[in-house]
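Supplementary notes for students who missed Thursday's class. We covered one full example, reproduced here. Read the sequence, then the structure, then the short commentary at the end.
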Amino acid sequence: MVPRMARTPFSLEGKTAIVTGGGTGIGKSIAIEFARAGADVALCSRKMEHLEPVVKAIEQMGRRAFAEVVDVRVEEQVKGIVERAVKEFGRLDVMVNNAGASFRAKPEDISANGWNTVVGINLTGVFLGCKWAGRQMMDQGSGAIINISSIAGVYGSTMMPHYGAAKSGVIMLTRELGTAWGRQGVRVNCIAPGPVETEGYLEVLKKTDPDAEKTYATIASRVAMGRWGKVEEIAYPCIFLASDASAWITGTTIVVDGGPSPRETDS
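Structure (token representation):
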């Protein structure tokens, strides 16, 4: 008889997850890679037409999935998808607060409404996802929350200061909740991506920058590895933080940015 191999600690087999902003870009990749690793996945965003193809792809892998239209700034909607995930899947093991949005503008040109919109989606939305997922996970006695920040939250962003401020808040919120809930079995961690090739980011670049190709190349030159990141290169660290392989990690932010510019490391 061939001995049964032990399940890898990186497996998500038997786990259930919610991914906000799961219809495009990084969120879509996280959802699909989670399913490949064995998880059942609930998806949400503001546009069902983005979510439906991802649900279909996950179901074709033999995993369960469903999608719901959610504005992460609306508490009842966030609460609702957590409750539905628990009802359909039986529990909630992983919450990925990925939904985000921004626009490029000089600080002096940002309106109060623009500021509130970006902070609402990127910071308040993360808080609400943490709150309701955290309550469920504390009741269960276990769970992992993964917040998606940005290197803009680490180093700042002169053309997106509202976004940088919100993403910095996500990093601190992660640290605070990791401390608050650690003894109740709930781990809260964060990924801060560098420049990643997503449909949304590249579209904003093309629409707002008349010299988009040059800007794209300039951004790549500031990365030690000399290129932009791919969406799956953010999804893989998320699998690590969602899995038992990271069982003793909480309150931490992992920067995934291809390394600092060579100029920054010169003596």
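Commentary. The first strand starts at residue 16 and ends at 20. Residues 1-6 have pLDDT under 50 and may be disordered. If anything here is unclear, bring it to office hours.
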